[in-house]
Amino acid sequence: MSSIKEHRLKLCLFLTCCCLFLLSCQETEEEANGSDEPEEVLQMLDLEYESFQKIVGWINGETILIHKGDHQAHGLISHNLFTGETHSIYEEHSYFLSVEISHTNDYILFQEVSDSGVILNIIDLDGELAHSIPINYSGYVTLDWNAVNPELIFLSHYAYDVEDETESILVQIWNTSDNTLTERPIASLYPRWYTSNVYVYVDEFEGRHLYIGDIREEDSDMIISREIRDFFLHQDTFIGVVPSDINEHQVYLFHEYPFLVGDNVIAVPRVTMNNEPMKPHMTQSRRNGTILGVIAEEAVVLEDQLGDYTLQKLDFDNETTEDIIDLPYDAPITLSPDERYVLFGWRYEYIINLRSGEMKSLINGPT
Fold first, then answer.
1. Which of 160, 211, 152, 162 is nearest to 187 (CA)?
2. Would residue 302 count as lying in a domain?
């Protein structure tokens, strides 16, 4: 009898060990395959390098807008970074110059140049024309689309007076509701909308001061800061660039959210051209979201050298920065809506995975 009990006890212990072993294997497999997301494989652009103009920006977290073109025709296409699927949006036998995506990511504004003239077009993502207006300028124009009232668009460029042989800045407002162009006396190529009616800019001629204006009033522009030399603006996040009065090798990035409220500041190495501090390339994709910047490793005078740069996360709450990846040069960046990837380069031809810190080219050829 005792031997039978002993046998049953050994059998129970054996079965218990087996169950524990199988459970351990199951948990290990779940840890390996269950909670972690599958690795995303980025799909390069299936496009000849010679016809690649630039990546315009993000349509959504996985789709980008591409501007392609050659001497015969230009076009706009969408490209899914993970499936590789492309979709032709618009193509014409003409040249496209400035191209912008709306803040809602569902409309495209672009400048089209052909033998018949120059026009500004607004199309949806199916290529359907929503608005169009002719303009009298065949060079690149600067565009700023009002995020609060998308019917208003700043259009600015240099204008040459043949009689006086002088060059000035022409700023116009395109109101798509009545399809009119209205001149606005602004001494900057880069006015930026802050609200549906209010705008800000840095005067490019009179001391580089920060001004604010309101399109509902004439001659309303006024100086609000004599210290800010340039600024970054995304929705109501405002970051002013102020030269340090203590250290000639630094500039201060003053973070204000909303506009002119707050005093968080980060000091970064100063980059100058013609003795003027240059604004670091910065990006933000969500209201009050992550802010990234291309920051010099040390002070740089661009007439003497190009410098070394790092992609950094700017933490204004703690007034610190966090290195993400070394960059090959100084160039613009744009953060994806889901804050997982960054496009980098003068044509946004590189993509950076913020989780792995890896960077790769999206186009074959000498980028």
1. 211
2. no
Q: What is the percent of the chain where pLDDT is above 70?
A: 88
Does residue 361 fall inside a structural domain? Answer: no
Q: Flag whether 341 is in a domain.
A: no
Instruction: Flag whether 363 is in a domain.
Output: no
Which burial class, exposed, middle or buried, applies to 235 when counting CB atoms under 10 A from its CB (0-12, 13-18, 19+)? middle
Cβ distance 294 to 280 under 8 Å? yes
Residue ending a domain, among 138, 170, 199, is: 138
Kind and range of the H or E element at 307?
Answer: none
Q: Do residues 126 and 159 share a domain?
A: no
Please tell me whether the peptide bond between 258 and the residue prior to it is cis, using omega within 30 degrees of 0: yes
Q: What is the pLDDT of residues 285-329, one digit of tens each?
A: 999 899 999 999 999 999 999 999 999 999 999 999 999 999 999
Co-location of 116 and 160 in the same domain = no
Within 10 Å of residue 240's Cβ, how many Cβ atoms? 24
Strand partners of residue 311: 294, 325
pTM tops 0.85, yes or no: yes
Does 52 share its domain with 130?
yes
Q: How far apart are CA 327 and CA 296, in angstroms?
A: 10
